[in-house]
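Risk register update: the risk that structure generation would not scale has been downgraded. Supporting records follow, first protein first.
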Amino acid sequence: MKKDSFLQYFDQMVDPRSHVNKLHELNTILLIAVVATLCGAETWKQMEEFAIAKEKFLETFIPLPNGLPSDDTINRVFSAIDPTQFEICFTNWASSLPDSFKSQVIAIDGKTVRGAKSKDGKSPVHIVSAWASQSNIVVGQVKVSDKSNEITAIPELLDMLFIEGDIITIDAMGTQTAIADKIIDNGADYILSVKENQKNLLEEIQDEYLFGKNIPVFEHIDFGHGRIETRICSVISDFKFIDNKDEKWKNLNQIIKIENIREFKNSDKKRETATQYYITSLNETPEKLLDCVRSHWGVENKLHWILDVQFNEDQSRKRKGNAAENYSTVLKIALNLLKNETTVKQGIKGKRLKAGWNDEYLLKLLNIKKV
């Protein structure tokens, strides 16, 4: 394999298996899982069947002295791997990709893997991911522990990331003073959504806009999909009604109000309106701040939607041990490899089909040459 192959970043992972009767190296199993996923496999059995069909090809860049791992072996390994180690290795690899962390918006948002809910009533796995909006890659993830929520998981994820100089955007669940402190202490800026869970702060912001004068405004209009969408972003930098802002919110410099107006051409519902508020440590124009907020919204259709629709993550029934969390990391490795390859102008589905049909293209995705 090439020296700069993605797999080198996972060499430090500890193999959880005993050396007795171990036939396959950990990295061999990991690579087969990633290659099979790139080509459309979604279950452990499909990974085994893919490897059997492609055994001669796989042998050109993977040592297979003991043949191929079975689906049961793949299942046992991914159920036993330490997910925290796997996620740290993943983050280290993601940070090595071109432009993965270079003064861009990092959107942090959670997603529940609904198919991973067990029969005994145990909650499904919930993963918080960090999405680099301009690079279109996942730069880190962490699982929310069973007896906790995103408020405790987000600081763990921030500590894993290299975010200096970036802009961190988080939905209302993450609008906490400790999280704002963590972002500033790590050398980044924040844009945090404010909703009813921060009731006093929301009322203070609404008062600022009720009594504010000469507020800078930027308006953006989109036409398409049978509708006209108008976004009006207004920003206040001189606060009069936010109490103890310096004590509560580190480096709070501006508040943001974004009004969304949707007008439909061919629908009984002619008009929809929504208003959202944010706090930020930035000192920027309304145009720049609107662009940052819109970048955060992209995490839904550029990450979560793709994981559900293109990779069928929500249909996954991997429930044993750490399998669901580790499989989520495998999916994000595959997604990053597909996003990072830009010579083929196709969507994720088209690239996965091409990888399954064209061995040379698959090697190009993996950045690997035949031995």
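Supporting record for the second protein:
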Amino acid sequence: MFYRYFPFWYTFFEALGWEVIVSDGVRKKGKIIYIEDSCLPMKMLVTHAVQLKDKVDHLFIPRLVSIHRTYIMCPKFRGAPDIVRLATEGCVPIINEIIDLRKGGNSLNESFLEIGERLGASKKESKKAFREGEKSFFEFKEEWMNRINGLPTRQLFQLGIPTPKIKSNLENISPPLAGGDEEEGEATRFFPPPPLPSPFPIKGGGKEIGFPWRVAFVGHPYNLFDIDINKDVLALSKSLGMEILTSDLLSDEEIDRQISGLSKEIYWSSGREIVGSLFHFLSSGVDGVIFLTSFKCGIDALLQEFIKRRLKVRGGSPVPLLILSFDEHTGREGLTTRLEAFRDVIEQRKTENI
């Protein structure tokens, strides 16, 4: 969730007077800490936490139960603070307040008021920090298309680096604030994405901003943005002429519409977003779709079955679809070969008007 909410978290803690330090664990240590039978993101979490434990006063690992009023997170989010506490031998306090929007009311605000109180801030100071963090989050999202297509992957979440101005294919629709202060109504999701039309409009071709192909990348945020996992697949793709679109642009309503025909409900927030985004992009006029998964992720394995069955019923994918699976042994060379072949398929289909 670092790759989803860091602009909010960073601003919230800085507004309370705390310095925020981000781990650089894997590249510094050179290896991932292994936990038997654990999934890849949990191994990464422990590796980064161990790298930070002697440098900070607190580790921030919230116990994320639900970031959506109706749906839940993968169960491993609930145990993450406990696993890290064991891995770090309890040598550093962990900020692990529960975030569970199923409680209703103003549970999101209340969770961060508790965090502020734990750090010695008054209720007034915490409310102000929450609003500043929320504002920072939405400003960051407004610039997302320019950042992801104009900056190196390592710099995407370095907030001090200005966003380059790029002429995007997407209409510039400014998202309204949502999930705000409790006086303005309760949050139903931990900061929803901008509510773009369904499907969102794509203007012209990628050549307007220097990319001949428009390709949607769908998957868990760590698979998309953690270059220690994906070997910087975004940079490789942009070097091959692909303009990158992500599911951050889609509204809850569009996600719900796309998965409404499934025979079974998907209760995981991430799973709903992934499946709904894939179905949306496969029918929205993009040139290709890339689904990034993690080996040993049970949710991803199940989602692939949902997707394959839906595509089989519909007679296949209307645009090229590539599924890339990552683990700690993934190599850059094989990834490059597959992306080049995928680019060639897109180009051939365009040339032959398939």
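The chain has two domains: 1-194, 195-351. On this basis the risk owner (M.S.) recommends closing the item.
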